[in-house]
Amino acid sequence: MHTADRLKKVPPYLFMTLRNKIAEARRRGVDVISLAIGDPVDPTPPNVVDALSAAARNPENHRYPTDEEWGMLAFREAVARWYGRRYGVDLDPGKEIVALIGSKEGCHHFALGVVNPGDVVLVTDPGYPGYKPSIWFAGAEPWPVAMRAENGFLPKLADIPTDIAKKAAAFYLNYPNNPTGAVATKEFLADLVDFAKSYDIAVCFDNPYSEVVFGVDRLSFLSMPGAKNVGVELNSLSKPYNMTGWRIGMACGNPDIVGAIAKVKSNTDSGIFNAIQYAGIEALDNCDDFIGKMVGIYRNRRERVLTVLRDLGWQSDPPCGTFYLWIPVPRRYTSGEFCDLLLEKCAVVAAPGAKYGGNGEGYIRLSLTVEDHRLDEALRRMRANLSKFEF
Ligand SMILES: Cc1ncc(COP(=O)(O)O)c(C=O)c1O
Question: For position 368, what pLDDT does the model report?
Answer without folding.
Answer: 97
